[in-house]
TrEMBL record:
It comes from Methylobrevis pamukkalensis. It comes from the Bacteria. SUPFAM superfamilies: Ferritin-like (SSF47240). This is Uncharacterized protein.
Amino acid sequence: MLDREIARSVFVTGLKNAHAMENQALSIMQPQVNRLTHYPDLSQRLQSHIAETETQISRLSQVLESLRESNSSMKDTLLSAMGSMAAMGHAVAGDEVLKNSFANLAFENFEIGAYISLITAARASGDSHAVALLEQSLDEERRMAEWVAAHIPSVTETFISLKGTGESAKV
């Protein structure tokens, strides 16, 4: 049998980390969506996922508040800054849209792992209310990861086509 107090401690730490992770996701996606000109489907899906991510942050805050805890402003700020730096790093690449697609797929899968762990810790700590909220976020992350993976071929083909015409293909 798992110790509920230890499980709660792991759960709270995970919630704070996930809150920061979702802020990092926003700082990665927002610059991307603002730069996309030749990839309207990707732009639209990123805009939709930005709205989902904002809702996920709200869910995480709700769970933290129910536990009489709060997010870590320091973690939120630090990971958000790291996300902004990652976005800037790809902006100088000649194949920015491709690099962003690969990084987005990796990040979505990281988030999936984080939510699976959070759900496990919530169950171990006896917080059944949080499980339903976290499962909603997990489902959204899985759908986004599937979408990104399914669209890497079309993004790559558009990139190649634009590059062949001499247009800026990177975004």
